[in-house]
């Protein structure tokens, strides 16, 4: 049975979508069947990593949540975005994007959506696409839909930046997740500044939140330079960040 | 801010300048005063020595002549007082050789009415020689050394000059006076033309017949040599002159003083300005240069003070010779001036050394102070790491076995203490910040978790999980059934 993993952050701008896209790509390159659901309906963005434009999308997650299509109709295979010579024979990558149309976004925000239907959709995707991992790219912050999406996941990965606001927000998120009895909560620290203190930082964060740290990704100008124009792990295969991401992926397989 | 790099060398230099300068000033001013006061004393000392020596020089001739004349008077000579007989010559050689142990520059001459002449000379001018001549045999002068005479060896020289002592002035005057006389200054026929003044005394027999004339020469050349050997102060001069104002000898080089075969030069014609001016002054004060008493003069010439002592040289026969010594004050002061220059040079060298030592010392002393200053400044600004805090240099300085080393050690301990305190403070701050954040977080969590929204959310989450479990279970069962059906169909097919 495939695993449902939610990747979340308390604040926006933590690099959540970027990390999600890269982890998914690395898993697919390793031969896994992986799906990504962009539940950040308010500000969708992960499709950009796969050079996926609005006119390529017929149905999106929005249509599914509004009952206008099946979840499979909103799933697009993006395996061809990966370098074919590197990908394992069985590896597949699917993207369920959120709509980029302002009208669709507004409608969902106004009417809300049925998390139960989303939950069913997740399960259907895993089953129909025979997914090993279905990764949910959540909307940052504390909202009912997000918390419920996380609540049905097999694991919750919280991304945080090492600053005071994120520490505090993540602490709140962590405690609420525990109260919601979300299993297997793990942390990824992104945009860390001081390379020398990574071990200390990892120890302090794990001690503070009572949850393991999957990895610490250093702040990189190269990432900023790439923007969201592609998958970093593909364009910078020997980069420190790619190395850390690969380690995180290795841990992912054990979730 | 005045740097120690400047203060130290300046202080050292000033100290040396003050100490050496004050000592030099005191000693120089004292010596200058003493120099002026003692010029007269120095003059007295010099003059008394020179006078004594000159008197000895003159009196020796008198003494020798008289003593030998007395002895010859008692001496019986055979063969009509043949003074060239080997016995007599050898006896005289022995006597003169013996006497020359007591007195230098000794010469004695014996001349008899037969025109024989025997001259013995032990002066410093050459070897000890004996000259023999006999006008009856042509008057040539044979010269032997004391050692080779009478040993059947040829004379060392023969002068064919037809020497007849009886024609000499001293001989004739001695006969006229019938007693000891002094001849005038003239070139010596026997002694190579050197200027001499002869002292002579006749020796008579029992019948008042002249047996011989004994004489001894006063050699101006040897007096000149003696005067030139005097170590007078710089710009000082000594000179001997006769009553006629002729220069006899001086401390000046021989070109200025009279020499052999030259006539005596008048003091007024002397090119040397000191001799010239001194002579003028002496003559002006006394009306003559034939002095009868000692006199002291002090006068200015060319801006310098000259101290002059002039006195007649005392002798038995009133030769009318006078001695003058002129000492220049500048000669004495020049020595002092040289001393001052040397002192100044020494002071300058010491000051340079002091400045260099001061620079080295100040640099050596300042280096650790600069490090300490840098460290203190870094501590002031909470900079506890290199390069702002020169901890490595402090560690090196702390190894020095002196006060700076100990001070550096104290600084290092202080830095360690501050670092420890800072770390503790940081930990405490972190803890405090954490506690503040913790309390805010807990409060926020409580607010959310206690809200009806969250309680409802928990129920919904539980329901969704149950629903998912059910779906998963159903899918699992459905999957199993599908597998079984597939299996059955497969069996039936088989």
Q: Compute the number of structural domains of chain A.
A: 1
Q: Kindly report the spatial arrangement of strands forming the biggest sheet of chain A.
A: 3-4-2-5-1-6-7-8
Characterize the biggest β-sheet of chain A: 8 strands, mixed
Beta content of chain A comes to 15-25%
Largest interface: A-B, 25 and 25 residues
Structural class of the helices, strands and pairings of chain A?
Answer: alpha/beta
Q: Indicate the low-confidence ranges of chain B by residue numbers.
A: 489-494
* Rounded mean pLDDT score of chain B: 82
Q: Output the strand order for the largest sheet of chain B.
A: 5-4-3-2-1-8-7-6
Topology order of chain A in helix (H) and strand (E) letters: EHEHEEHHEHEHEHEHHH
Percent of residues of chain B in beta strands? 15-25%
Shape of chain A: globular
The termini of chain B sit apart by: 111 Å
- The count of strands of chain B amounts to 14
Please name the fourth-level CATH homologous superfamily of chain A: P-loop containing nucleotide triphosphate hydrolases
Helix content of chain B: 40-55%
State Rg of chain A: 17 Å
- Stretches of chain A where pLDDT is under 50 for at least 5 consecutive residues are none
End-to-end separation of chain A in angstroms reads 13 Å
Would you tell me which CATH topology of chain A applies?
Rossmann fold
Descriptive terms for the model:
heterodimer; A: 255 residues; alpha/beta; Rossmann fold; eight-stranded mixed beta sheet; 18% strand; globular; B: 494 residues; alpha+beta; eight-stranded antiparallel beta sheet; six-stranded antiparallel beta sheet; 10 helices; 55% helix; rod-shaped; disordered C terminus
Question: What does this entry look like structurally?
Answer:
The complex is a heterodimer of chains A (255) and B (494). Chain A is built from 10 helices and 8 strands. With 255 residues, chain A is of the alpha/beta class. Chain A has a single domain, classed as Rossmann fold, CATH 3.40.50. An 8-stranded mixed beta sheet of chain A has the order 3-4-2-5-1-6-7-8, with helices on both faces. In chain A, α1 (16-29) crosses α10. The longest helix of chain A has 16 residues, at 164-179. The two termini of chain A are 13 Å apart. In chain B, a hairpin with a 6-residue loop joins β3 (129-134) and β4. In chain B, 55% of the residues lie in helices and 18% in strands. Chain B is rod-shaped. Chain B has helices spanning 4-74, 78-81, 86-99, 169-177, 220-228, 273-286, 329-380, 391-398, 403-449, 452-493; strands spanning 106-111, 116-122, 129-134, 141-145, 157-159, 181-187, 195-204, 210-219, 237-242, 246-250, 265-266, 295-301, 304-312, 321-328. Chain B contains 10 helices and 14 strands. The model of chain B is unreliable at 489-494 (pLDDT under 50). The longest helix of chain B is centred in the first third of the chain and has 71 residues, at 4-74. The chains are: A alpha/beta (255), B alpha+beta (494). Chains A and B meet through α4, α5 and α6 of A and α9 and α10 of B.
